[in-house]
């Protein structure tokens, strides 16, 4: 994979590229992003950009993956046994995003760039309907809370109510 080439770079160069990508994709949707701005900020050539990434959507997926990993690593992982656990984990993710360098990237993601990242399609398994419903509700709550932060608390309450209904 082309991304492996970035992993072999000195951390200073890698950080410069990641900062340039974060800046570009925080300020511009993928459809309006420009390689020229990225390479200028990163201090690399256009050829180097294409050595590391296939195209702009590939570069976006790279920085998005870093953002998700960074936000998730600060979550308190535990078994999600009930509605309260799911809501708490969702709150922590939103708070983690808000307190990270990736908050505006996440907002831009849900407003403009979500289609550039493949969505996880859960396999249909026996008795998996409840898990599918929980994941769908959690991700919709995340999307809404990040795009419209003023509605976050109401969305968490809505999520709690819906998940408790599913629990029966």
From TrEMBL:
Q: Which residues form the HTH tetR-type domain?
A: 22-54
GO molecular function: any one? DNA binding
The keyword Glycoprotein belongs to this UniProt entry's keyword annotation: no
Among SUPFAM superfamilies, the record links this protein to: Homeodomain-like
Give yes or no: UniProt keyword DNA-binding.
yes
Specify the signal sequence span.
none
Keywords from UniProt, A to Z, are: DNA-binding
* Gene3D superfamilies to which the protein is assigned, alphabetical: Tetracycline Repressor, domain 2 (1.10.357.10)
Report any Pfam family annotated for this entry: TetR_N
Q: What is this protein called?
A: TetR/AcrR family transcriptional regulator
